[in-house]
Amino acid sequence: MVLKLKQPNRSNAGPASTVDVSAIVRGVINDIRADGDKAVRTYSKKFDKWSPESFKLSPEEIQQIVSTVPQQIIDDIKQVQENVRTFALAQRASLKDFELEIRPGVHLGQKNVPINSVGAYIPGGRYPLLASSHMTILTAKCAGVPHVTACTPPIAGKIPANTVAAMHFAGADAIYILGGVQAVAAMAIGTETMKKVDFIAGPGNAFVAEAKRQLFGEEIGIDLPAGPTEVLIVADEHANPFTVATDLLSQAEHGPDSPAVLITNSQSVGEKTIAEVDRLLKILPTADIAGVSWDRLGEVIVVDTLDEAYKLADEYASEHVQILTQKPREALEKMSNYGALFLGEKTCVSYGDKCIGTNHVLPTRGAARYTGGLWVGKYLKTVTYQEVTSEQESGELGRLCGRAARAENFEGHARSGDVRAHQFLGDKFEWI
Hints:
The chain has 432 residues and is an alpha/beta fold.
């Protein structure tokens, strides 16, 4: 049995947007490709009303800005970054370079090499997202990336000092107060004053996500396509509806397009959670955002068993999956499609977003079916190398290569093998 106590109310989505995001982004990218810094300044003035003498902060400016940040915020930034650093370095240590000898004198190896230059986009807009600095810049540095360029937009025409502090302590090599498509395009293409990067990471709005999508491949690599934040909670009959409701709304406040879903084996928990959400929305300062998201995209679904709940949750493949059951670790065995799991009542998604140490840049819109989130490994290129030191083995491989290549009608490939078979084993070929 599947009982839907609350379904999405997409009729309340409002009038359809007439903005062609793809076309706008394409135009900005083309202009920056053609006019460099001039176009960047034009779009920064247009979209952010921001046109300083230099978008890049000097070391002196950074120190001055950081000096305005309250000491408690700086201490908290450093504590959170230590958590992120500890986990990221453990991830890096788990990635081993190796070399093996598959036959006498035939050596194959693998190395994990950091990307040379990375661009980190730290969103602003509605909220100053300090945590994105930790997740993108610091993780890149833990991977060994030599140079990280970091961009964040001004907020209401002002430099976001707390964000700059987080970017600085995370290890950014260059900090720009620059946002939106113009920031992503400038990093990806390069301008007179901004060096081109090889890879861009970080969340952003629809325009930022589209810019990353359009620039991916030819210009840059990207971490992953990003959509609105998602949360899905699996709860049993012992879950506290107040806790469930609070945790659902904690993610719904990200924006009006953030799905918040509860799957439970208890109709009572489901009904009480809905009542708690309605009550909490009357006192939540961000209810104007969270309430829209809950009305439009909130769901409460009742199933017969927890096994059914886990199975249904896997079909959603949500970004954040929170397990509020008596045996939360069952989810580790019974689920496979999620960006990140948050196990038990003592854990919540907000810990992952803000402070616990795992990365919060995660797959959305079902992408958890095929990828995980941002991590140290995203900033590494896993490359291979080969060396044959045995004449006998090189000749034997030459013979094998010749046969394999000719089976595919690749005569040029075959002849590379023939040369070694001839040189080391004395084989005769008409063409030599």
